[in-house]
Design a protein that fits this description.
CATH superfamily of the largest domain: Nucleotide-binding domain of ferredoxin-NADP reductase (FNR) module
CATH topology of the largest domain: Rossmann fold
Number of helices: 19
CATH architecture of the largest domain: 3-Layer(aba) Sandwich
Number of domains: 4
Radius of gyration: 25 Å
Distance between the termini: 66 Å
CATH class of the largest domain: Alpha Beta
Strand order of the largest sheet: 6-3-10-1-2-7
Strand content: 5-15%
Shape: globular
């Protein structure tokens, strides 16, 4: 009997690719399966094109929409006429926060190549990103298949590889909650907590600049109110758990998803049905769509009681929340700290709670295990040369990674100069870590500390205003090779700080505005201007 010779080994991933041998082997096998005649359905023409063009081979290496300060409509306009995967990228929140498990470019590539089926992972992008990705994915599905003779391979990312425990949202580990302490003093309008975790039991480590993913539980009072509105039993079985367990641990009760309104439209009639259909299509018939969380949606359609199983199916999965790490593994091994603003607000007469912030601030107890993971930073890290000066701009909880930077530089004996810009509302009650920072200033670790308090005077005064006041010295540091970092709000603070930086470069660097903008752009390209914004 003649033996059949084994099929030739297909080498799709070149040896020069940035993967280990095991990863290359796994990827080659995965993509060979996609290409085989009896494997999965052929990729669409758009998918094939995305692959053949490669991650940057379509002639559009620049991504002008990659700006977290731009509204999604502007980003989509900038991406018009580009390949589908690039339009998918434009739909992302553009923060490269890693909350989805990718960066924005890689998440879009993974969806376009069908390596990732989930379209709702972009937490900062919320509903508008999910809706746009759904529309673009429908476009992908309708594309004609690639001819069988065309060899294509999906764009690949390291995120496609199963991560080791605690290094991915898909593979968290249990860390131990240790303690919390309030950072604000009496008279503050804010509620900000210093949170400590013990990592010794889970074996995690991290470097400064990384973020910490937290899987929080929904507040049980809200869960019980929702169960009551459904007219269901707490112990009703759904997906092998009780309804109460599923609503507490597995699904999001925040913004009501389109799929919930679709469900409501199926089980009601008349004007209620039309209203639910409109909401499911992204319309806003009553002007309240932006305020409708799951509870509010049920209240709006009171009397409509979905079956618990159908209700749960209509909800989004509960997503982890990421926080900048405010401690240094080199300084305190096995200990990890966060700096967390607690979110509480009122809509109508109902109090709303931030999911993870109130979970950390009040619902967990010392000794409780929490599902967590470390998210590696995308281009946010201390300079490789410890002698390099650094300028850190972090108002409010933006102080978090810079506290970590300073603790790390002290622990490692880094000789580089350190300049911190910090601001908040009131110096008397909102000066986080004041004792620590003043001690660092006294010891010489913190070379300069520039503070800005927006509510202490008659006129609001912010970190960007303080930057302009000391612009000459700031320019001198940049001219000496300093790296500059921003952490905080993407929409306002980061934009205002960058505008101030451009003005400083123009004024004290003797440049035109256009030349100053180019100079700041070069700082970004060289990794000397890095941002951790949200």
């Amino acid at each position: 009997m003649n033996q059949m010779s084994p099929p030739p080994k297909i080498e799709i991933i070149p040896a020069s690719a940035p993967f280990s041998e095991a990863q290359r082997s796994w990827l080659n096998g995965f993509f060979a399966g996609l290409l085989s005649s009896d494997g999965p359905a052929p990729l669409s023409a758009e998918q094939g094109a995305a692959v053949l063009q490669g991650p940057s081979g379509d002639g559009d290496e620049e991504a002008p929409w990659h700006d977290q300060t731009l509204p999604i409509a502007e980003r989509m306009k900038l991406a018009e006429g580009r390949p589908l995967r690039r339009r998918m990228m434009a739909a992302m929140a553009q923060q490269d926060c890693g909350q989805c498990g990718y960066n924005c470019n890689d998440y879009s590539d993974a969806i376009a190549s069908r390596a990732e089926a989930r379209l709702n992972l972009c937490v900062p992008g919320g509903k508008e990103t999910a809706r746009m990705l759904k529309a673009l994915n429908e476009e992908l599905e309708k594309a004609p298949p690639v001819s069988s003779g065309t060899a294509v391979a999906p764009a690949v990312t390291a995120a496609a590889i199963t991560a080791e425990p605690g290094r991915s949202r898909d593979n968290p580990v249990a860390a131990t909650f240790v303690s919390r302490r309030l950072l604000n003093k009496a008279g503050s309008e804010k509620e900000t907590w210093h949170i400590d975790f013990d990592l010794s039991g889970c074996g995690l480590d991290y470097v400064v600049g990384d973020s910490f993913g937290i899987f929080a539980r929904n507040e049980l009072g809200l869960v019980d109110q929702i169960i009551a509105m459904l007219g269901a039993s707490h112990t009703a079985e759904v997906k092998g758990k009780t309804l109460r367990e599923v609503l507490a641990d597995d699904v999001s009760l925040a913004p009501a998803p389109d799929s919930l309104f679709e469900l409501l439209s199926f089980i009601t009639g008349g004007a209620q049905r039309e209203k639910a259909r409109a909401l499911a299509q992204g319309e806003d018939p009553d002007g309240d769509a932006a305020t409708l969380d799951v509870m509010a949606a049920l209240q709006k359609f009171s009397g409509v009681r979905p079956h618990p199983e159908a209700f749960v199916e209509a909800l989004e999965p509960l997503q982890p929340r990421l926080y900048s790490i405010s401690s240094s593994h080199n300084a305190t091994p096995d200990k990890l700290s966060l700096t967390v603003d607690c979110v509480r607000y009122v809509v109508g007469k109902r109090r709303r709670l931030g999911l993870a912030s109130t979970f950390l601030a009040e619902r967990i107890k010392p000794g409780d295990p929490v599902e967590v993971y470390v998210q590696k930073a995308h281009g946010f890290a201390l300079p490789q040369d410890p002698r390099t000066p650094i300028i850190m701009i972090g108002p409010g909880t933006g102080i978090a990674p810079f506290r970590a930077f300073l603790l790390d530089r002290r622990a490692t004996g880094a000789p580089g100069k350190n300049w911190l810009f910090f601001g908040h509302q009131r110096s008397a009650c909102d000066f986080f870590y004041s004792d620590e920072l003043n001690a660092m200033k006294t010891s010489g670790l913190l070379t300069r500390m520039s503070l800005a308090w927006s509510r202490d005077g008659e006129k609001k005064f912010y970190v960007q205003d303080r930057m302009r006041e000391v612009g000459r010295e700031l320019w001198t540091w940049l001219a000496e090779g300093a790296h500059l970092y921003i952490c905080g709000d993407a929409k306002r603070m980061a934009k205002d700080v960058e505008r101030a930086l451009v003005d400083i470069v123009a004024q004290f660097g003797a440049r035109t505005t256009d030349e100053a903008v180019s100079f700041v752009g070069e700082l970004k390209k060289k990794g000397r201007f890095q941002q951790d914004v949200y």
